[in-house]
Design brief:
This protein is an alpha+beta fold. The protein has two domains: about 1-40; about 45-155, Immunoglobulins (Immunoglobulin-like, Sandwich). The protein is about 20% helix and about 40% strand. It contains two helices and ten strands, in the order H-H-E-E-E-E-E-E-E-E-E-E. The protein has helices at about 1-20, 25-40, and strands spanning about 45, 50, 55-60, 65, 70-75, 85-90, 95-100, 115-120, 130-140, 145-155. The chain has a five-stranded antiparallel beta sheet, with no helix packed on it. A hairpin with a 2-residue loop joins strand 1 (about 45) and strand 2. The longest helix has 17 residues, at about 1-20. The radius of gyration is 26 Å and the shape is globular. This is Bacterial spore germination immunoglobulin-like domain-containing protein.
Amino acid sequence: MNKLLTMFIVALAFLSGCNNDETPPPEQTQETENNQADDTTDEETTDEHGAQNEAFHVEYPQPGDSVEYTFTVKGEAQVYEGSFAYRLVADDGEELVREYVQVNQEDHEGKGLWRSFEFTVYLDDHTTPSATLYLYEESEKDGTVTNELAIPITFIPSEE
């Protein structure tokens, strides 16, 4: 019985020493939370599935791809009311194209809220060597751009 009591007391002392709740100072906790919040806001990544953020997964084109002056954009989106916008901006800042896209409402089986999209960009100006394709949502309330995904591309020179 004495051995059992001794083992119990030793175990209790050990466990009470392990529960050392060292909470960092409030300033450190707040800074860590801010850094974590910044890391998840409009985060863009590129992997084997393409360029993506929380609203868009773009299969084609990929960042750095060379495309014709008329090219098709393919991917999936999880956007409010199934619509989003895109714009194509030349490296000098000139906006070349701005359009709105509706996602495929029929294509939803097994994808949750993700819906496929496919649209073609037609560019009349064949002198621009490169540009950035931006996919984004616009707030209906105030027009604020959210979930913007930037995809830099270069154009294959046309043979005219």
